[in-house]
Amino acid sequence: MENNEQSEGAPGTLAPPSTAAPQVQATIEPESLEPIYTNFAKVTGTPEEMILDFGLNPHPISMGGPASPIKVSERLVMNYYTAKRLWAMLGTTLQRHEEAFGVLETDIMKRIRPQARGPRPS
Hints:
By secondary structure, the chain is of the alpha+beta class. It has helices at 80-101, 108-111, and strands at residues 40-45, 49-55, 72-79. It has a three-stranded antiparallel β-sheet. Strand 1 and strand 2 (49-55) form a beta hairpin. The longest helix is centred in the last third of the chain and has 22 residues, at 80-101.
């Protein structure tokens, strides 16, 4: 009599699919990690790396360009493979946000609402 069953863990045997939820490893941030806010970004690069400079524009709505120089406070340098993965993650995140909350209009002139001019309160 031939035995067609193989014991668990035998070579060539597929393990049954796991029904347990995948475990997510918690990211432990160092206490010294400080978030930054940026409303200005500049992208440059070399043949091997992409350089992202971030800063704060104190006059972001000025139509003729910044009134004062923008001080770059943070610089990220990454290879193009990492940049492409970042681009994909940002795109997916922005797409989900727009699906939930509506399209993000980046043209300031399309977002400005005209102010009604009426009599001023006395």
